[in-house]
Specification:
By secondary structure, this protein is an alpha+beta fold. Helices cover about 35% and strands about 20% of the residues. It is built from 14 helices and 19 strands. It has helices at about 5-10, 30-40, 65-80, 95-110, 125-135, 140-145, 165-175, 190-205, 210-240, 255-260, 265-275, 290-295, 380-390, 395, and strands at about 20-25, 50-55, 80-85, 115-120, 150, 155-160, 255, 305, 310-315, 315-320, 335, 340-345, 350-355, 360-365, 370-375, 380, 400-405, 405-410, 425-430. It has a 6-stranded mixed sheet, sandwiched between helices. It has a 4-stranded antiparallel sheet with strand order 7-10-9-8. A 4-stranded antiparallel sheet has the order 11-14-17-18, with no helix packed on it. A hairpin with a 2-residue loop joins β17 and β18. α2 (about 30-40) packs across α7 (about 165-175), α5 packs across α8 (about 190-205) and α9 crosses α11.
């Protein structure tokens, strides 16, 4: 016998019973109304985390202005605190996506460390999501549809109703005489999801009554398959996560050789996993650029341009450069007092140790032809020194050089590649971290 709806909810939320707080994303619609009522009722008999509701007001239609009042009335009747958050939806090609982005940004702001944001998506929503992404040509990760839980800010987003049908939610709402909002935009077939919900899935259900349940079950199978692909990616990336010869360079990198030993499909799987936190991934047609980068000649330094940065290949390694790396200014920067670190615009920090020359000094960047004094080796061509070091080309143009007038006084020690000067002082450069370029 199938468990009651309250029992299903308690089972689904068992891993988060000790969370500091539960927040319900409360639109006022059927799904979130049932979810909030279930949790508020269970809180009377079970020990649950503190419960509150969050209503996000997008301001996209006049009817929505009355919804916060309705939500407040429902929350008052249940004894649940409500927070109304008004957001600005950025104009763009997809109003649905823009509204979703604004909504989840609000959810991120309210979800503290270890806290849980609960949303009301149900089994029918899952089936729609799978069908929608299938028609867009999504891969396994996309077809896995909505996960039951995922990280959000310092806590989690959890969907405890994903195994519950809309029919069950409506039955619960009618038994408990709940009132909810019917969003007029949900009936507009111009929106792709509404078209699937009102025009496509009903036709499927006439021919295959279990269509929605079957689609949702398929999403579960694909989620399990994606989990296995993730495990495989972890194994392959572990082999490629070899120490960089430039440990001081704070950007993600991988050894290329272990990846080249894999099949093309495993290479793409590992790279998708590695790149996912760093950039929006390319579609299938653009993966040909990976093959061009991988197979370029050894002395080449190919670049694969992606949505949020670039993937470089240099000296047998892959290096990820976020878009912010291209934003630094190579203009000269004055350094009045080397006793204090110097912030370089878009290029990290420069500091000096030992008896550094007195100011005023100037930091410049390479123009070509620079000569530097190297203790024990005399005057050396900087380009030759950099070639000997194997320093990646994308770093060389950012290397800060210290001048006094027109005299080149010093180059950063680069983690010991150059010894201290005769005067026993050194420059130390900490480049801009990759994290500074990520949202």
């Amino acid at each position: 016998m199938k468990p009651t709806l309250p029992a299903q909810i308690l089972q689904a939320l068992a891993p988060w019973r000790n969370a500091p707080a539960w927040h319900v994303a409360f639109s006022g619609g059927l799904d979130s109304t049932v979810l909030l009522h279930l949790l508020a009722t269970l809180a009377n008999t079970d020990h649950l985390p503190p419960l509150s509701a969050i209503h996000v007001h997008h301001g996209l239609q006049a009817a929505a202005d009355a919804w916060p009042v309705h939500c407040q009335s429902v929350c008052d009747s249940l004894g649940v605190a409500l927070r109304v958050m008004r957001v600005q939806v950025q104009p763009g090609a997809s109003l649905e996506r823009a509204a979703r982005d604004a909504r989840y940004q609000a959810f991120t702001e309210v979800t503290g460390a270890g806290q849980v944001l609960l949303t009301g998506q149900h089994r029918d929503d899952q089936a729609e999501t799978l069908l929608f992404r299938l028609l867009r040509g999504a891969g396994v990760r996309g077809l896995a549809a909505m996960p039951v839980q995922r990280p959000l800010a310092g806590g989690y987003l959890v969907r405890p109703l994903l195994h519950v049908s809309r029919e069950e939610l409506e039955a619960y709402a009618h038994v408990h005489q709940l009132r909810w909002i019917e969003d007029p935009s949900n009936a507009d077939p111009r929106f792709s999801r509404n078209y699937l919900r009102h025009r496509v899935l009903p036709v499927f259900a006439q021919r295959w009554p279990q269509a929605v349940a079957s689609l949702a079950r398929t999403a579960e199978h694909l989620s399990e398959a994606q989990g296995l692909l993730d495990e495989l990616a972890h194994m392959d990336l572990h082999a490629a996560d070899q120490p960089s010869p430039f440990a001081w360079l704070p950007i993600p990198s991988l050894a290329l050789a272990p990846l080249c030993e894999l099949s093309d499909a495993r290479q793409r799987n590992a790279l998708r996993h590695w790149l996912t936190p760093l950039t929006r991934l390319p579609d299938s047609d653009h993966w040909a650029s990976w093959l061009s980068l991988r197979d370029a000649k050894d002395d080449a330094q190919p670049v694969w341009c992606l949505a949020d940065g670039e993937l470089h290949r240099c000296r047998g390694r892959l290096w990820w450069l976020p878009a912010v790396w291209s934003e630094f200014s190579d203009a000269s920067v004055s350094w009045p007092d080397p006793q204090y670190p110097l912030e370089l615009p878009g290029n990290g920090r420069l500091s000096a140790t030992g008896n550094a020359p007195a100011g005023p000094l100037v930091v410049r960047y390479r123009q070509g032809g620079e000569i530097v004094e190297v203790p024990g080796r005399g005057r050396r061509d900087l380009k030759r020194l950099l070639n000997e070091s194997g320093l990646p080309g994308f770093v060389r143009g950012r290397l800060p050089l210290l001048y006094q007038g027109e005299q080149l006084l010093g180059v950063p020690s680069l983690a010991g590649l150059w010894p201290a000067t005769r005067e026993r002082w050194q420059l130390h450069w900490v480049p801009q971290t990759c994290d500074q370029g990520l949202s």
